[in-house]
Amino acid sequence: MTILKKISNIGSLQTFQILRFTTFLLISVIFARSGLTVEEIGYYELSLFIASAVSFFWVNGLIQSLLPLYNSNRTFRVHSANKRSKSPELFNAFLLISAFSFLAFIFCSLFQRAFHVFDGVKDVTFMNLVFLYMLLSNPGHLVEYIYLLKNRPVDLIIYGFSTFAIQLIIVTVPVVIMGYPVELAIWGLIVISVIRLFWLALLLKRHARFRVSAGFMKEHASLGLPLIMSSLLSGSAQYIDGIIISASYDAAVFALFRYGAREFPLVILMANGLSNAMLPEFSTKDKVNTALRTIKIRSGRLMHLLFPLSILLLLFSRTIYINLFGTEFLPSAYVFMVYLLLVMSRLVFPQTILIGLKKTRIVLIASLFEIILNVSLSLCLIRYYGIVGVAVATAVIFLVEKALLVAYNYFSLKINPCEYIPLGVYILYSAMMILVFFIIDQGIISIY
Question: pLDDT category, 310, cuts 50, 70, 90?
Answer without folding.
Answer: very high
